[in-house]
Amino acid sequence: LDGGLPIFVDCILKVCSLQGQRATSYKQGQEEQTSAFHV
Question: Is residue 17 part of a domain?
Answer without folding.
Answer: yes
